[in-house]
Amino acid sequence: MVYQADQTRYDNMKYNRSGHSGLQLPAISLGLWHNFGGVDTYENGRAMLRRAFDLGITHFDLANNYGPPAGSAEEMFGRMLKTDFAPYRDEMIISSKAGYYMWPGPYGDWGSRKYLISSLDQSLKRMGLDYVDIFYSHRPDPNTPLEETMGALDSIVRQGKALYVGISSYSAEQTDEAIKILNQLGTPLVIHQPSYSMLNRWIEDGLQDVLQENGVGSIAFCPLAQGLLTNKYLHGIPTDSRASKSTGALGTDQVTEVVINRVQQLNVIAVERGQNLAQMALAWVLRGGKVTSALIGASRVSQIEENVAALNNLAFSEEELNRIEDILKS
Fold it and tell me: Most buried of 40, 44, 146, 284, CB within 10 angstroms?
């Protein structure tokens, strides 16, 4: 059956402007880091992408190395663009990144001009696109001058291969310098993608101030702390969880008694708010308007539906925020 997007898809999603730019992102975006690779079931990924778009999620976040194998998530998304999403391309924000290991030798990693531009060319071929909406430097490179990395991003925009540029996981100081360089080049930084959650608050120590002062948006990845801030870990480590797998991104050493106790206390507040823990965690990340979008992952359609429902209650009372703060600092 030919896919036709839900006509009500824009009725309930909240869209936020990224800094001072004209770009608006959905408050909930979908990342293809896990569960959309060549080792995964295509029809499940297809169902998740369709449902996400039907719910008003217009931003799909990828990177050159997403899979596994590396590159296969972009290939999967490219297939979706051909079969389902072609009529809706201009309603979507599609992003990709380069900065982590992708191919052997000195030109397939980090932040050189050679790597970033070559990698984006490959990403565009895998997805069947002429351009991406956002292209990121995926991580800072300690051995390449920042002027070179930012200069490559500027060139990519001038070549028409990306509409906007971003950075990911840069410190406050590195971000401030990157902003200045890009402003001088005439291609302003539009967005920063940092990790951020109730259990990982490093961006509050300077980075958020830099972004706000310079009119740059942010999109938080791992807002659910790799699943820790869901009902899954309320009673320890379940056998089907990421923490139970030796190859998973979440280690058993991260699921401590202290963390589980914290999560259980947070869950009490979530229930009082009429939300599950994941929904409250997403609402908390978006509190105060400092974060443009929360970037979720998913393994099934129901998770996307549950996460988008977080937008039904984004308001926190001062008492709730104080209780949450006490739990997180205990």
Answer: 284
